[in-house]
Hints:
The chain is α/β, with parallel strands linked by helices. The chain has twelve helices and 17 strands. The chain has helices spanning 5-12, 58-81, 121-125, 180-193, 210-213, 255-267, 287-295, 309-324, 354-362, 374-381, 386-390, 399-426, and strands spanning 15-17, 20-22, 30-36, 39-45, 88-94, 100-107, 165-173, 198-202, 222-224, 227-229, 231-233, 236-240, 274-280, 300-305, 329-340, 346-347, 366-372.
Amino acid sequence: MTLDKELITRAMHRVETRVGPVDLVAGGVFVWASACDGFVSVKLNVAEDEDGTGAADEAVRAMRQELAGDVERAIRATAEGEGAVLRSLIVQFVSKAGVVVEAVKFDGEVGEAKGAASSGASGGGSAGGTGHSPVPPKSADGHRPIRGLDAPGPHAAAPSGLAGVGHIIAVGAGKGGVGKSTVAVNLAVGLARRGHAVGLLDGDIYGPSLPTMLGLGSLDQVVHGGRLQPFAVHGIKAVTIGKMVDPEKPLIWRGPMAHGAFKQLTEQTSWGELDYLIVDLPPGTGDVALTMAQTLKCTGAVIVCTPQRVAQDDAVRAARMFQQLGIDVLGVVENMSYFVGDDGKEYDIFGRGGAEHMAQRLGVPYLGGIPITMSLRENSDAGDPTENFEGAARGGTRARSDELLARSLEEMVDALLGQVSLAALRRGAATPTLKIS
Length: 437
Ligand code: ADP
């Protein structure tokens, strides 16, 4: 049987806890569940007497951890009883206002239950891989596979990262419009200009902006042998769902559909060998961030934030969520840090330094600030990010503002590379070397 919402709800009716069996559905604790391919997320209400601000003390945290463990055992046991496999689970605790205040992640598959692979992978098998198949049928999870792509096999569902890809770096933000995609694009291009092999995945499936920012307008998406062929532009390889859907239509994805679409974009793309895969996530901490945490091994996440106080609160929440999902926060970038006019004068319009203070508060690195410049906006709209790095060399009236822009981008890339090295050291993947000159 498929590990779906109905099975999860059934499991939630009888969860064995330290004080005996508890019905989380009747008790109003269980709120919502989403499942696709054995990857499950569940939302639980925080206890009545909690304030829901997230400022829980250690005892409350320990209780949530314990309850999450009980929930995991209940779902796993019910799934196994039905011949299904729980591959990964994220339990989120939400406040009365619906804000996620804590998340607990469980990884790992126990045993190989018969029939598990058919739960989500089955639907895509009929897509064939010819690139000309009719609209594929929906899988039991409600995810309609992207046309012409092979379904991710059960092997691809293991949370072991992507073959051939060195570092996966997510770019996230607490809210939309702060320049997350701008940072993702310029990080990717900046890394490529240093000689690294870089891929860029537009994971912002609800509002993909890479077709515009990379100038993909006239190019067609190629599917070869059932796999997406990334666009080779500006020295990077890029994939976006924006080239596979009608740009005029809103993209509405429910949890399992978003999960399936993101998985297909990551796993069914011929990335080849990459040093870095930059993933531009949707704003906030929704389904795609959960899927990424469950299916990929990320080196870490970069949080983009503008200097204002209101932007910081959301960014803090996003950063905490990444940490709870086991994804290191590599640092915070302050976008729109200050404005530089064509006259080269700097105007501190949003309160430069706000994001740096936030990073200090969070105890995470600060990767630098990017100014607001006319050129950055124009180059993004024109789909020419390379110009952000080279505009200054042209001189002219914008020479000063273009120089500040290019410098800020180069410094952001430097800072990120430093943090990636440190993250590798933390994981024991690199040995420090002492250079004596
Ligand atoms: P998000 O991904 O957070 O929704 P975008 O990266 O799409 O935000 O940026 C929103 C808009 O603001 C885009 O038109 C982009 O070109 C512009 N923009 C972002 N950062 C800057 C900046 N530092 N200077 C000028 N324009 C910017």
